[in-house]
Amino acid sequence: MGHDKEREHIMMQPPSVICAGILVADLFVPPLEKLPTGGNLVVTEDFLVQPGGCAANTAISLAKLGVSVSVVGKVGKDLFGDAVERDLQKSGVRTDALCRSSTHGTSKTVILPVTGEDRRYIHTIGANADFSVEDISVPLAMQAQVFALGGYCVLPSLDPQRIAMLLNNMKVKGIRTILDVVVPASSDHPTLDDLMPILPFIDVFMPNIEEAAILTGETDPEKQAELFLHAGCNIAIITRGENGALLMSTQETLEAPAFPVEVVDVSGAGDAFVAGFIVGLLEQWTLADSLQFASLIGASACTQLGCTGGVFTRPEAEKYLQSHQLSVTSFKTV
């Protein structure tokens, strides 16, 4: 009874973080030795079905870290949408601002990992194609401390000028803004020009090195970060998988190696990294401490199949850091 009252009290308070953007119903196949050839059957352990997409993964990771968080996005009026909403709620994420599309089904992805190879994805965009600025609860967003937009570049109904106006209003009110992207490696891929309308209103931009290369045409993470800063964001963080992460602001450049973990599945690592860095923003840590914590939370996501099952809770993260520290290197930004 006491737990129910505590939960009710929490739900009456505005969330600290809004995670907006892509929502997906993910179906993970356990790691395969090889893909089956035509007509052959491969038997595996049980499949894993869970909410996915940038907004869901970051929100669930934040909830595991003890942060009050609400998700803003769109799913279909179908069983998959029901499952995404139910599982988000079970994970401690608020879904009162979740929208349902009347024209699209829930986005779905099948993830096929093969040992020693990169993952393969089979994806349908679904209701994410129907997500627009009108689906963002402005009163709710304006009460948050951090607004994180994930999956930009693959949300076709999200008008750049209108989201820029909303982000500007948030910054004026002192809300910290985070941007994460998904950049398809296609011939008509987005470029840095496509981000120009919104980067001036972004506090922290967090692409991975492959996404940054597609956007800028540069392969060097420092040059990538410099271009993003020149485009208007305050901080650019380039995540580099097993090679760690680089953070650049106008004052300093930080480099952090990756935490050594037993990697099972790297799905969701970038979204967990975002969640870890948001904790540092909320608690006003130094950039170096925030980068180290983000690196740890991102690494923890790799230790289990799926995007969020392995993500550390706050006590688990603090215990791990008692015996493991990263050497974060600092340089003065030129």
Brief descriptors of the model:
334 residues; UDP-N-acetylmuramoyl-L-alanine:D-glutamate ligase; 9-stranded mixed sheet; 4-stranded mixed sheet; 11 helices
Blueprint (SSEs and pairs):
Elements (H helix, E strand, L loop, with lengths): L1 H11 L4 E5 L2 E5 L19 E5 L1 H11 L4 E4 L1 E3 L2 H12 L8 E3 L6 E5 L7 E5 L13 H4 L4 E7 L7 H13 L3 E6 L10 H4 L8 E2 L3 H8 L4 H10 L4 E5 L5 E5 L2 E5 L12 H14 L4 H14 L13 H10 L5 E4 L2
Parallel strand pairs: 1-4, 1-9, 2-7, 5-6, 9-10, 10-11, 11-12
Antiparallel strand pairs: 2-3, 7-8, 12-13, 13-14, 14-15
Structural summary, described in words:
With 334 residues, the chain is of the alpha/beta class. The chain has one domain (14-23, 54-77, 92-102, 129-332): 3-Layer(aba) Sandwich (UDP-N-acetylmuramoyl-L-alanine:D-glutamate ligase). Helices cover 33% and strands 21% of the residues. The protein has a 9-stranded mixed β-sheet with strand order 4-1-9-10-11-12-13-14-15, sandwiched between helices. A 4-stranded mixed β-sheet has the order 3-2-7-8. A two-stranded parallel ribbon has the order 5-6. A hairpin with a 7-residue loop joins strand 7 (108-112) and strand 8. Helix 2 (54-64) packs across helix 9. The protein is globular and about 60 Å long.
